[in-house]
Design a protein that fits this description.
Two copies of one chain form a homodimer. The first copy, chain A, is an alpha+beta fold. Chain A contains eight helices and eight strands. Helix content of chain A is 42%, strand content 16%. The radius of gyration of chain A is 19 Å and the shape is globular. The interface between A and B is medium-sized, with 19 and 19 residues. The structure holds a DNA duplex (30 and 30 nucleotides).
DNA sequence: TTAAAATGTTAGATACCTCTAACATTTTTT
DNA sequence: AAAAAATGTTAGAGGTATCTAACATTTTAA
């Protein structure tokens, strides 16, 4: 559709809007690592194209059209990530940066084949749902590891950040999607938690990390 | 290295230089489908970066540095094409346009894995040699089908054009890399030739087509 | 509720890549 | 060798995406 830059704006606006509904100019500037006036002028352009609705000094809202475009890019990004991991054997901490580039490839053939080779998959290597070709996303209840009570177990279903530094951190703690872990202790003081990993090791996670790990409560428990 | 635009200039300059040694501003403008002044100013920029040597009103020459960059892009393009055909099962007439996009992906991991999965391949799906990681290209004798004498046989080793329209044409004639064919008749008049295909069908090829099919003489002969 | 801080906007500049119009040089043809 | 054609260059402008500096509005804190 639009330029590479536009695609990056749309994707960021959409993902911020999932967290907060309305998106601020400053939030977007922070996410895209550009200055406020840069965002301001791009938003005007996107508003002219009806991709966002914008009221000066208020906020940015994604339109239906914008949502469609965002989901198409996110679909390509997540299919690419899964392909890189499953077919090419690249580590999950490396695939985000490559997928950032592949998501801009324009070729139905390319993405249809990827989808077919992966068996029309539903989630990417970080546990995030892959929108289907019509832009439908499987709804997910988002319970973070930080919300699990002391003594309870949970299974990791996704991670809320796919930057290399974050995933390297999880790798070093021995955490993977699908692992069942138990919360041993929760610190009031700083929100950090101590968990028992699948490998029966105790390890500490900061508040910031625990809140970026999505889980589902484990009915059976373990450990 | 440089921008996407720069990469496209470098690649085009290099491939034109293989045909003619020196490259003209107008030839480059034709190839890139931009106007003369556009090329003129970009060439000045590339000359400032020592990627080409340029003497106004004379010609454009690729420097060693330029050659290195060009070969690195060409390597990525041809690895991508082969990957798309061999691993993803996409038709050879479709892969060029996708590879044009993939060649700009910046990731050693990505291309090292592709190279590894393909077993460090030497030629792409169109029979063109893949430069190795140091920029070394296997030398190839280039004999075109148009140069084969009446009655002689030859084996197709490569095609000198990877546009979809050209490859669709070859597909419709039932021609593939590796096929051994026989030249039945050569027309003085327009340079067209009649050949016998591997499937023992007679078919006519125009001068323009015959000269874009690279062959090696078949010592054994056939049919 | 006023002052301070945070957030947002406008104006004007720059780099990149492209164009058209006008002019210059080189090559080809007569 | 002069004229015509082809090729190349310069000047000036426009769109995109970015920036800094100055100003405006909204939110938060004193």
């Amino acid at each position: 559709m639009g330029s590479l830059t536009e695609e990056n704006y749309i994707k960021s606006i959409y993902s911020l809007s999932l967290e907060a509904g309305e998106v601020s100019v400053s939030g977007l500037a922070r996410k895209l690592k550009v200055k406020l006036p840069t965002v301001n002028s791009m938003i005007k352009k996107l508003a002219a194209k009806k991709i966002v609705a914008y009221v000066p000094y208020k906020g940015i809202k994604v339109t239906e059209k914008g949502k469609r475009e965002a989901l198409s890019i996110i679909r390509k990004h997540r299919l690419a990530e899964l392909f890189l991991v499953e077919v090419m054997g690249i580590g999950w901490e490396e695939v985000h940066d490559i997928a950032e580039q592949l998501e801009h490839v324009e070729s139905d053939t390319f993405y249809n084949r990827i989808n077919q080779m992966l068996g029309n998959p539903k989630v990417d290597p970080h546990g995030e749902p892959i929108p289907d070709i019509h832009g439908k996303v499987a709804a997910r209840k988002r319970l973070s590891l930080g919300e699990i009570a002391e003594g309870d177990s949970a299974r990791i279903t996704a991670v809320g950040n796919d930057e290399k530094s974050f995933l390297d951190h999880l790798n070093s703690k021995g955490l993977q999607i699908g692992d069942t872990i138990t919360v041993r202790k929760k610190e009031e003081f700083d929100g950090s938690i101590v968990i028992v990993t699948r490998a029966r090791k105790e390890t500490m996670l900061s508040h910031q990390v625990a809140n970026r790990i999505w889980v589902e409560a484990d009915p059976a428990g373990h450990g």
